[in-house]
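thought: fold this chain, then report.
action: predict
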Amino acid sequence: MNNTPFLILLLLFCSPFLATAQKETNNWIFGINAGLNFNNNIPAPIPNSAMNTGEGCSSISDKHGNLILYTDGLQVWNASHHLIINGSNLKGGHSSTQSALIVPQPDSDSIFYIFTVEEAINSNMSLHYSVVNSKASGGIGEVVQKNVFLTNPVCEKLTAVEHYNGRDIWVIVRLWDSNEYHTYLVTENGVDPIPVVNSTGRWINSLNMTIFAAVGSMKISPDGKYLATAYFGDTGYVALHQFNDVTGDINNPIFLDSLPNSYGVEFSLSSRYLYVSNTSNSLHQFDITANDIKASDTIIDSRKRLAALQMARNGKIYACIVNGDSIAVINYPEGRGDSAQLIVNAVYLEGNTTIYGLPAFVQSVFAFPNFTYKIGCFYDSVQFTAITTRYDSILWDFGDPSSGAANYSTKPYPAHKYTQAGIYNVKFISFRKGSSDTALQTIEIASIPQAYLGKDTTLCPSDTLWLKPEYKKGWRYLWSDQSTDSVLAVFNPGSYWVRIYSDSCSVSDTIDVGEIAIPQIDLGKDTLLCPGESLLIDAHLPTAQSYLWQNGSDKPYLEVTGEGEYWVIVTEECENLSDTIYVTYAPEDSTTLSTYSLDCAESLNVDISNQNGDSYLWQDGFGSPLREINEAGVYWVTIAKAHCLYYANIIVNSHCTVLELPNVFTPNGDGINDLLKPLKKMGINRLDFSVYNRWGKLVHRDNTVNWDGLTNTGEQAVEGVYYWMINFTGEQNQSKSLKGNFTLLR
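observation:
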């Protein structure tokens, strides 16, 4: 890659060859004793102006911004506000739109040409020039040649621009009763009296228009490419021509009609926009780059009667308010429509007055290097735009050396991405015809706001969540509830967003806030336990952080084995939860309900309903608290009370010995009376039961009194009468015996 051109430009940038911007237009003298100084870019009033004029005038300063001369086309004053020698009776006009124009002689800092045009009501309506030596007569200045005639009849329209060669100057005048423009060249040798003549546009004279068509301004665009001419009157219009700054030719007119009483015209510094004022209260903007320039007409303002328009060194365009004590300003001439921002009464003239005019200058003086920039949204590149076209080459220094070679550019519309937030000094240098000029601007690259609100989260019902994105003075905040503070208090669940603005850019973030459901802790209902039972109380919660029981335990469970009040405190994410349970025990009942005696010849009725049981279950499956007992012995019963079971015994005693056997039994296998067993047995404990046939032979013996009719040898006993004997021990352990007989039938 060949870096030679870049290195040359960089060396030029680092050398003292670079000149500061010229300030020949920094002093404005106009109106009734009015004046402004632009040396600090912000216009400041100039006191003691000696001029009193209604319209056209001109002033000029040296390259350092020191006033040299000013004139109304009739008289010439120096920086001390004194008339210079021979400085009266010039051939301008007190009410001529562009009565005078001061043009410096190329390569001279003291010789100036004052071109003048007379008022339209003057019968001559001529173009003249006079020559001034500002250093003559001891520095007072002197008109050394006066009122040199060039042509007539002319309109009140006069403008000038630098020749393409960067040294000579073209002076243009519009002729009356003609469609001609005459263009004169001023060189180091003086004014060439033979003009470049161009017949273009509409013929104007008193036959097709009133004399007022001679009224109105004419301006060359700063880049020397366009010429705009305003024609005053009820049928007023503006003619826009192309201008050739090499040959002085004017051609290709476009007519912007329906602009009555057009008076002031001026181009933006980039030469893109043409502004037209009229004294009927409207200010128009046309886009010269539009495919349809006429259709691009935009009314910027309709509040004031505006007359002359003039660009200043700060790139703004100022407007004369008719008969005003202040002037208006178009703050951003490169802005489209309302963004151009007209401010009326912008500059107060400290008691002095404007009528219609502002000072005229050689328009190419405003072709100084300048630029605009548009900062993208934080991380985007900054787009720079050069708003001068009169250069051979250009060089940008973006003031960001950390970016390396990207810190420089030679393009007219470069973009630069800054390495970090901060304040940067940007230089734009224009090289032309062996000289250079520099424009400086300071820009601020804002840091990227951190709109981060955090991860989605949950909120306790009684808590407040403060959302706090990054804060920086000058940033603007807009929340989902339309509030504009830098923080937001959240009390309820929902989705919340913030948008942070810096200039025209914004970043945003969203957070979803849910509500934490508070769990319920329930140890259960107060509980009655049966004797010997225990209870496991469960206080476990999935979100619990700690537990504390009344006995100091920190477990989620507690086993209860005794009566009492039991409580727990559970520490949870949002709050402390607690509950209490009361545990009681059922009493222990006696295991023996009672002891009963059974009479020898009676049965016994037992009633245990006084135990107040919910249900009763005897050992033999009987389920009532009231029952009949026929035999002595030990009986047990299960009594249910609530959910507790109690087990109790009933003892039945008998002091009688009773044994009743049937007198007949039939062991034939039919399931009826097949066994010989007692009908009643009482008072008998251990026994020995024997059966004998009629011959006295033992056929059966057992200890239960339970015979099936089989002999001891396993044979069936024959039918007949048999005798039995029982030897037993009674309840008092006495030995006794009983005898009897029965009949066995098959």
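thought: worth noting. Confidence is low (pLDDT under 50) at residues 1-21.
final: tokens above.
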